[in-house]
Amino acid sequence: MRTTKAQLEYQAREINMLTNSPLTKYRATRDKNGNLISMAGHYYISYAYGRCRLERISNPGGGCSDISHSVSKGELNSILHGIINVLENQQKINDLMDSLENKK
What we know:
By secondary structure, the chain is an alpha+beta fold. It has one domain (5-103). Helix content is 43%, strand content 23%. The protein is built from 2 helices and 5 strands. The chain has helices at residues 5-18, 73-103, and strands spanning 26-30, 36-38, 43-48, 51-57, 64-66. The strands form 2 sheets. Strands 3-4-5 form a 3-stranded antiparallel beta sheet, with helices on one face. Helix 1 packs parallel to helix 2. The longest helix has 31 residues, at 73-103.
């Protein structure tokens, strides 16, 4: 099955939710010079030269870090599924540890 941009964007949003990162790339307001203000910590999909990758905004000026290599949409789909599975499993482990702590 062919992977669409919409699928990748949905998975990036899910990663933002699982990591409690900002859900939007930019703030609703601009700085005093009228420039957009980036939301540090936000994960998003970057597209260039027919390839894509997962990136994370690292500062309000818009600097970003590459989280994945530049790959095809299908390959990135697999990478994002793996990241989501790890985050969900970690959340389950944390919930289990919390419930065990509360029983003591």
